[in-house]
Amino acid sequence: MDLTGINKIFEGSSKPAKIVCCITTVLLIFFYMFHKNVFVIDDRQHQKGQYMPSPKQYGGALGLQLRGRLGNQMFQYASILGLASMMKFERVIIEGGHELRDTFKFENDRVEFGKVPAYWKVVKSTQSGMFDETLTQLNNNSELQIEAFLESWKYFQMIESTVKKDFTFKSTVMSNAQKLLNATIVKQAINISFTNVTYVGVHVRRGDFLNVAAVQKGLMVAPMEYILKAMRIMHILYGPDIIFIICSDDIPWVKKAISDQGHISDYTYVFMENNPPNVDLAVLSLCNQTIATTGTFSWWAAWLAGGTTIFYKHQARQGSEYRQKFNYDDFFYPHWILLE
C-alpha cells in the first residue's frame, strides 16, 4: 500500500487537517489489511465464558470425553488421534481421563487435555468393538466432539509409532514395574536354573464382567481351561524356560483355579498382587509374550508387550447385545492367535 500521497498532504496542513488525515490513514490501513485477510472475523456468537475460534485459524478440531477405565481410555485416545491424522484435523481436545494421565507422559503437541467446548457438534457411534467408517468422512473444517468407545486398531494403524510414543509410561510407574519384575527374577533364581528366560504375561479379567448387568449384556470371562491351553502352547513355542507373570482383578480365583490343576505343578508362575492397574499394565508390557483373556486392558497389555499374543476368542456371548457391537476382525489383530 503506497502512502506517499498521504504524506504529502501532511506537509503544510493545519492541525485539524492533520488529525483528519491521521484518522483517514488508520481507516485505510485497517480496510487494506482486512481485504488481504490479515484479520479473521468470526461472526458467530460467543457463549458465556468461551471463545469460539474460527476454523480458519487451525483447520478444524476433534474432541472427546473419555469414558470407562484405563483400557477403554487408551482406545479412545489412540483412535481419536488416528482419526485426526487420517482427516487432517489440526487439534485434538481430550476431556477427563485422570487415570490415563497418571499413567503416561503424553508429550504430543497436537493434543490438549481440557474441557471440550459445549457448542461443538456431537458425532455419535454405538459400534464399540468395530471400525465405523462413517467417522472417517468428517469435515476437517469444523469442530466436532466424537462420542464413541472406538475399540478398533484400524483407527490408528497408520500412526502406531506415534501412539507407542504417547503411551510411554511415567518414570514412577515404570520404575515400580521394573522393581517388581526384578524381584521376581531374584526370587525365582533360587528355585530354577533357566539359561534363557521367556516372560509370558498373563492377564485374567473377571471383576465387574461377572456383574448381573454385564452378564445380561453379553460380557464374558475366559475359563481356566483356555488359560491352561494357552500356557501349554507357550511352552511348545518357547520351551520350558518360561516364567508366567500373572495379573488379575481376581487373584484369589486364579490361585484356586491353578491349585486345582495338579498337572501344571511343573510350570513356573508368579502372581502380581496389590498393585494399581497402571503398574500391572507396565509389568505386562515388559513381558516377552502375552496370554490375554477378555476386555481392553488385556488388549493393551498384549499391544504394548508385542511378541506372540494368544487371546480368548469369545469377547461377547453369541447373540447378545454386546456381541452385536463387535466385529472381531476389527478388534483382534490378524496375527494374534485366537483360542476357544
UniProtKB/TrEMBL annotation:
Q: What is the lineage of its organism?
A: Eukaryota, Metazoa, Spiralia, Lophotrochozoa, Mollusca
BP-aspect Gene Ontology terms:
carbohydrate metabolic process
What is the uppermost EC class here? transferase
* Name under which the protein is recorded: L-Fucosyltransferase
Primary location recorded for the protein, binned into one broad class: Golgi
The subcellular localization recorded is: Golgi apparatus, Golgi stack membrane
Q: Name one GO molecular function term.
A: galactoside 2-alpha-L-fucosyltransferase activity
Q: How does it sit in the membrane?
A: Single-pass type II membrane protein
EC assignment? 2.4.1.-
